[in-house]
């Protein structure tokens, strides 16, 4: 493959290899992964030799030799495979299988790093295309929206219709030219009057529909990544920014951009803290959620909650906490029904990003900060 005599034969060989890999058994694919990982790895001795030569004489030619030696042959193979028809989709799916194998065989991570390195280039924001998903979109795309929805399950086609067809509902997705029929990530948006306090009211079959021009708030209530093979490549930041820009231009009546977000780590954290169950009192539950979101950190200093990390890193602030906001089985299990509005205050987004990047400072409204302080005082009183 790496020494194919002509471009035509190389393309045919690439297609043959990809078709073979797709039809392989688990054992054969495992062998292929180890071939990539071991047989097509870098030659460490050669790298050391070229690094020494470059150190002694840092010329363009010694630099080129070092760069060539430091690149594993599997990267060249992946680039050649990507020339085949539909190869980008196949390679993304191949990485999804590789990630599963790495749970038991972490040493395959060397191959994964090379695929991820290439994907960061191939899926650069400059290549992505923002498209609105509507009820008139091709059925094949709509079926994938139903399948990939990861936050609030789409029950059936009627449910999907309620999320796409009304004038106060929108959905946007990123696509890649090499994968035109595969959404990479999508966001569902509700246009509302005021800030909603529950997902039930937002998705209710009986809700009152608004004319788009009569609304003042855009609510991002579900963001779903679609391709497991693109894990580690962040699209959400760019997606939200571009959708905000799109909606701002289309509807100047919109004054606020917020989320209605889950708190997926709340119950798990509470159990680790020794709490068998979260408080039933609404105010105490809000206090605990505020304390968790603002004060609980990972070892690197970032917020413990993954959704909080995402939105805070994108410049949002923790605006409001709601109880009984998601009474689904999933919502109760992960956060006792708690949901959060993250506010994208457009003039302050850059400032919030900078503060978060510098020292992981959590931007929050005064009301949420007050809740966290109340929780801290209550905890201090219990330990006295």
How do the SSEs run, as a string of H and E? Answer: HHHHHHHEHHEEHEHEEHHHEHEHH
Quick one: overall form? Answer: globular
Low-pLDDT residue intervals, each spanning 5 or more residues: none
Gyration radius over CA: 25 Å
Helix content: 40-55%
Instruction: Give the distance, in angstroms, between the N- and C-terminal Cα atoms.
Output: 71 Å
Q: Mean pLDDT across all residues, rounded?
A: 93
**Quick one: biggest sheet?**
5 strands, mixed
**Count of individual helical segments:** 17
Descriptive notes:
With 384 residues, this protein is of the alpha+beta class. It is built from 17 helices and eight strands. Strand 4, helix 11 (236-250) and strand 5 form a beta-alpha-beta unit. The protein starts with 6 loop residues before the first helix and ends with a helix. The longest helix has 18 residues, at 366-383. It has helices at 7-23, 26-39, 44-56, 60-70, 73-81, 87-101, 109-122, 139-148, 157-164, 199-203, 236-250, 266-272, 282-295, 306-313, 329-335, 349-359, 366-383, and strands at 129-132, 169-175, 185-192, 217-225, 256-259, 261-262, 317-322, 339-343. The radius of gyration is 25 Å and the shape is globular. Helix 3 runs antiparallel to helix 4 (60-70) and helix 5 packs across helix 7. It has a five-stranded mixed beta sheet, sandwiched between helices. It has a three-stranded antiparallel beta sheet with strand order 6-8-7.
């Amino acid at each position: 493959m790496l020494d194919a005599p002509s471009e035509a034969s190389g393309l045919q060989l690439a297609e043959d290899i990809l078709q073979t890999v797709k039809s392989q058994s688990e054992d054969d694919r495992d062998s292929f992964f180890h071939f990539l990982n071991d047989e097509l790895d870098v030659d460490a001795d050669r790298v050391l030799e070229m690094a020494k030569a470059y150190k002694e004489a840092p010329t363009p030619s010694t630099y080129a030799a070092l760069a060539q030696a430091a690149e594993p042959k599997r990267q060249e193979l992946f680039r050649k495979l990507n020339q085949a028809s539909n190869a980008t989709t196949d390679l993304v799916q191949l990485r999804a299988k590789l990630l599963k194998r790495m749970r038991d065989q972490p040493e395959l991570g060397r191959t994964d790093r090379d695929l991820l390195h290439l994907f960061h280039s191939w899926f650069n924001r400059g290549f992505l295309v923002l498209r609105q998903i509507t009820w008139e979109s091709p059925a094949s795309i709509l079926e994938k929206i139903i399948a990939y929805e990861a936050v609030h399950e789409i029950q059936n086609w009627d449910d999907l219709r309620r999320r796409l067809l009304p004038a106060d509902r929108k959905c946007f997705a990123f696509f890649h030219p090499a994968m035109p029929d595969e959404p990479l990530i999508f966001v569902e948006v509700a246009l509302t009057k005021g800030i909603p306090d529950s997902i039930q009211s937002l998705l209710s079959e009986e809700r009152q529909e608004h004319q788009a021009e009569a609304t003042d708030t855009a609510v991002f209530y579900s963001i779903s990544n679609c391709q497991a093979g693109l894990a580690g490549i962040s699209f959400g930041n760019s997606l939200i920014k571009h959708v905000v820009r799109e909606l701002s231009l289309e509807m100047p009546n919109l004054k606020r951009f917020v989320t209605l977000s889950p708190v997926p780590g709340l119950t798990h954290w509470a159990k680790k803290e020794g709490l068998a169950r979260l408080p039933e009192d609404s105010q105490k539950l809000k206090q605990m959620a505020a304390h968790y979101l603002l004060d609980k950190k990972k070892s690197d200093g970032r917020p413990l909650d993954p959704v909080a990390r995402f939105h805070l890193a994108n410049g949002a602030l923790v605006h409001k906490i709601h109880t009984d906001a998601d009474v689904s089985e999933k919502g109760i299990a992960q956060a006792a029904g708690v949901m959060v509005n993250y506010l994208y205050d457009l003039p302050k987004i850059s400032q919030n990003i900078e503060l978060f990047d510098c020292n992981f400072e959590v931007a929050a409204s005064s009301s949420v900060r007050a809740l966290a302080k109340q929780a801290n005082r209550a905890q201090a009183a219990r330990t006295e």
